Amino acid sequence: MTVMQSNGITRPVAGRLQRLLEWLISTPPNRYSRSRAVADNAQVVMQRLLPDLACDIASCQHPATDLVPLLAPVQSWLQQQFKSTRASAHDGVLKTLWLPDIKGAGYRCIALSSLTETGTGTGTGNDPAHQPLPAGSWMQPLALSQGCGWLLVNGQPLKAHDQEQLEQCLTLFTAVLRRGLNGWYQQQQRLQQALQEERQWHAAELHDSVAQVLGYLRMSSARLAKRCDNNAELAPLLPDVLDLSEQCLFAYRQTRELIATSRLSTLASELGSGLNQLVEEFEERSALVFELDNRCENLPIDDHQATQLLYIVRESVCNLVRHAHASHARIRLCREADDQLVCDIEDNGRGIQATANSGSFGLQIMQERAQRIGARLTIGPRQPSGTRVRLQLPLVSSPATVRHDSPAATHPGGKP
User: CB–CB of 410/139 below 8 Å?
Assistant: First the structure.
């Protein structure tokens, strides 16, 4: 296209100006159909990006690190599609993803954008109800089998047409994301079930083989010690025989303990009865006087948290029975005002040694179990004597409460 100047010489019109003139002379129906074509094209592109995404998410090993590269093509396309109206060309549309932790320890926060206000990287915390929302952003709910997840979307600033187009793209994306995450949760549950079944199988084999032999050695060494005590000729052998008898008894109890913990699986509703059985068991095995102070009922914890809590209490009681030289032990379970579960295991013994506190393998395992459920474990002296083991577990609100009562559950424009 050319334009005639006053001197009769023609010059070409710039490409952008030519497209503008063509758009201005086109009829309104044509312009409307072109805008609809752009929206339809966006959905076509999204459908081409998403076919294998659900399968890739379901088969990933660690979503906290694998999700970011898996979602990179979608993030890049959304960023390119809406970059003309965004505050920053480097700020992604998908900012942060909150996923319910597979072990019930709150939410796993995954930063999907390099400019996320809530921080980069990953972490574990409570529900996102208390997370401040950046201006122009909203929470997109994700109904998952493990609970309610949340996707923080950055849509600022968008025109009405762009906003509608973004919501259509996000509808397609979140549907695929939900399928992939639900598949991953199901796979993890199958792995946990297989692991528990394998542990129970090993416990049964241990019971039918090693435990039976150790039980026989324990009774035989006790009879031998009694014979040496009643026979003067065998009296010189008595110290060695008594030591052998004690070691056989110790090995037998250790094996029984391994069998019990390998088969341990507690429902959250049965935590109180599990603690009662634990106290009764150790009262029969030792001369200690146990006190159980359980002030909690209907706690908002899952079965995994209840099982790990019982593991920690059991290991603590085993340690105080073996090493504390105490006469009294107390297990206290209560709910503090700051909405956290506190479990104290105390004794009136000689106290824990500094070297044991830093290098004990059993204490390291207790710390690892506490970290798995998002709890804090501290071990220290008790006044006037003894040791106190304290477990502090934050109690997470249910996702239903978050969705209805939280200001985070808002959609574009601030509408609930």
Answer: yes
User: What is the rounded distance in angstroms from the CA atom of residue 325 to the CA atom of residue 245?
Assistant: 21
- DSSP letter at 129 equals G
Over the stretch 189-233, which tens digit does the pLDDT of each residue have?
888 788 778 877 887 888 778 888 888 888 888 889 888 888 888
Residue tagged 């700020």 (tokens): 91
Of 118, 87, 119, 122, nearest to 107 (Cα)?
Answer: 122
* Cα separation values, 102 from 182, 212, 281, 336, 343, Å: 11, 38, 31, 25, 23
Q: What pLDDT band is residue 360 in, cutting at 50, 70 and 90? A: low
Give the C-alpha separation, 323 to 218, whole Å. 22
Question: Which of helix, strand or coil describes residue 160?
Answer: helix
- For 59-75, the pLDDT digits (tens) are 888 887 888 888 888 88
Please give the DSSP secondary-structure letter assigned to residue 130: G
Element holding 144 (H helix, E strand)? strand 137-144
Per DSSP, the residues of 270-294 read: GHHHHHHHHHHHHHHHSSPEEEEEE
| Segments in 141-266 forming alpha helices (H) | 160-208, 210-230, 238-262
82 vs 9, 42, 52, 274, CA distance in Å? 41, 11, 24, 56
CA-nearest of 310, 312, 293 to 378 is: 312
- Asked whether the beta carbons of 362 and 258 are under 8 A apart, the reply is no
Cis ω for the linkage preceding 384 (within 30 of 0) = yes
Query: Residue 396: what residue type?
Result: V
Question: pTM surpassing 0.70?
Answer: no
> Cα(first)–Cα(last) distance of the chain, in Å?
52
